Amino acid sequence: MSSANTATAKTAAARKTGRRPGRPAGATTGALDRATVLSLSLQLTKTVPLADLSVVLVARELGVTPGLIHYYLGGRDPLTSGVMNAFWREVIENWPREQPHWLENIENVANAFYRALLRYPGIASYVSTHNRYRMVQDVQAGETDYGILFFEKFSSTMRQAGFDAMHTAAYAHLVVELVTSFAHSTVARRWPGQHGEFLNEKLAQLDPKEFPGTHFVRESLVSLNASDAYSMGLRLMLQALELEHKKRVAGV
Question: What percent of the chain has pLDDT over 70?
């Protein structure tokens, strides 16, 4: 089938189902419920910032009335909290298998969390810029708060290192902050390698005698990509944790 015929077929299918191309699959099944609305809304955060995800937008994307979304969720705040809870549930369901060494467990959990944030750029932006519903959720009776469950599992992972309560809390928070900030920088395209050609052109024009430090790092800086930056940052964090652990064992 030619590309023109394919496009025509997709348009015809969209008219038949009432769903625009690109709308989340399952939006027109006629079997919407609270869980389905939240699951489909989570998929929208792959392209829409969670902070911009309104009841009206979700209704339009699902091909239903805003009143129906209100019926299932109750409003904007329950929508935001419900989407965050759906995200945390996915993180929990993909929790890495436990390994013998505490440091490896922290690394695996951090990497799994980082990958989850990259899957949902709208979530990555939200958790880096908002406090409400970042972790604790408003759940209905009988529902699980998966944000709290993430906190419990991650705190338990960090606790394996044997630090006292104060250091366990501080280090756990630092690792989470590292992961969320790096993920946000990635989806927001803040790494030099994501703008390498522009940066290299501008920095190369500077006088090396006047800007020796800039010229020393220029080529390395403009080639720094998100993946390498995250790996380096996490490695430094893990090395620091290992050093602190050795000090604790030695009684220093």
Answer: 88
Say what the alpha-carbon torsion angle 231, 232, 233, 234 is, to the nearest 10 degrees.
Answer: 50
C-beta of residue 92 within 8 angstroms of C-beta of residue 150? yes
Where helices occur in the chain by DSSP H, the ranges are: 3-17, 34-44, 55-62, 66-73, 76-93, 102-119, 121-129, 146-159, 165-187, 196-204, 212-222, 226-250
What values do phi and psi take at 188, rounded to 5?
-90, 0
Distance of CA 197 to the CA centre of its chain: 27
CATH code that applies to domain 22-172: 1.10.357.10
The rounded Cα 46 to chain-centroid distance in angstroms is 9
Q: How far, in Å, CA of 220 to CA of 32, rounded?
A: 51
Query: Both tokens of residue 86?
Result: 């759906």
Each residue's pLDDT tens digit, 39-58: 999 999 999 999 999 999 99
Q: Cα angle vertex 167, ends 162, 173, to 5°?
A: 115
